[in-house]
Design goal:
Blueprint lengths: L4 H13 L2 H8 L3 H15 L4 E4 L2 E4 L1 H23 L9 E6 L2 H7 L3 H7 L3 E4 L16 E4 L8 E16 H6 L8 H4 L3 E3 L9 H8 L6 E3 L2 H9 L5 E4 H4 L5 E3 L8 E9 L6 H16 L1 H5 L10
Parallel strand pairs: 3-4, 3-5, 7-8
Antiparallel strand pairs: 1-2, 5-11, 6-9, 6-10, 6-11
Helix pairs in contact: 1-2, 1-3, 1-4, 2-3
Length: 305
């Protein structure tokens, strides 16, 4: 008996989603097509695989027995898909790197240098707060501060972002309290909303404000920098970005309590693929070359208050 993998994919999707319509949407096929494939699989096995209940499709005893085998086949198919690029040995093709906006702010002006080093590699940089699933090939690489506890992932240290307190030149000129510790009592501040309280510097700032509310709350680091640049108040910003902005003044040294250590994550099946390996090496070299800039050392004299 020869089984069709597409039929098994439909079976697995129905088991995961609980309905024929949801499984069809997940697989990008029509509901009648999904129904035909399920019937074809049941005919091949000469067994009914699901009971139809008001709450959805529930596996029969035969379906429950088949499910872990189908899961294993799906995992093997995903592994083949991940390793497929490795069958070629040329450093060319597309590499998709999932990043947050602070890393995007750092990489964007440096992409020309990356392209010179990787002329035959096409780079995609989806920017998101969410962690891409490397096992399902939502990305080839991920740059993140957190280290997920997921099997098959390999992490490599990239570098550490330093943060300090900044204000616009005009705001600081009009608010002498910004130059000292009174800034936490007397100055306006901008930061992140409650949902993004895990962003670098937010918890440190809230503790320094001693219960004072933030009158302006955002959910994007680049927008926060623009708001501070526009004079809304003071903010905790990444040194590499704010030091390069002539409209901003650094008011503190890099804050030892606020450091964002970045890691490069890759699935073990992909790290030896030539183009992925080349991109990894290029990113590591870039972060190493910019380590002082990232950390915010030394404090630039031209930005001093």
């Amino acid at each position: 008996m020869s089984l069709n993998w597409d039929d098994l994919r439909v079976f697995l999707a129905i088991a995961r989603e609980g309905s024929l319509s949801a499984a069809a949407r997940r697989l990008g096929v029509t509901q009648p097509t999904a129904g035909r494939r399920l019937r074809a699989l049941e005919d091949s096995l000469q067994a009914r695989l699901f009971e139809r209940h008001p709450q959805g499709f529930l596996p029969t005893a035969a379906g429950a027995e088949l499910l872990p085998l189908a899961e294993t086949m799906a995992a093997s198919a995903e592994a083949v898909a991940r390793r497929q690029p490795g069958f070629a040995d040329r450093v060319r093709g597309t590499v998709r790197i999932s990043i947050g906006e602070v890393v995007a702010q750092f990489l964007a002006p440096r992409l020309g240098a990356l392209r010179e080093r990787l002329p035959e590699v096409e780079l995609e940089f989806p920017v998101s707060h969410l962690l891409a699933n490397l096992s399902r090939r939502e990305a080839d690489l991920v740059i993140r501060e957190c280290l997920p506890d997921s099997p098959g992932l390999v992490a490599r240290k990239l570098g550490a972002f330093g943060f300090a307190v900044y204000g616009s030149r005009d705001y600081v000129a009009g608010h002498p309290a910004a130059l000292g510790e009174a800034r936490y009592r007397d100055c306006d501040w901008a930061g992140y909303d409650e949902e993004h309280g895990y962003f670098a510097g937010q918890q440190w700032l809230l503790s320094k404000l001693g219960g004072r509310p933030l009158p302006v709350r955002l959910n994007d680091a680049q927008v926060l920098q623009e708001a501070v640049r526009g004079g809304v108040g003071l903010g905790v910003l990444a040194c590499f970005a704010a030091d390069a902005d002539p409209a901003l003044v650094r008011l503190t040294p890099p804050l030892p309590e606020v450091v964002s250590r970045q890691h490069l994550l890759v699935h073990d099946d992909l790290r030896r693929v030539p183009r992925v390996r080349a991109v990894m090496d290029a990113l590591v070299a870039l972060f190493e070359a910019e380590a002082e800039t990232l950390a915010g050392r030394p404090e630039p004299e031209r930005r001093s208050a």
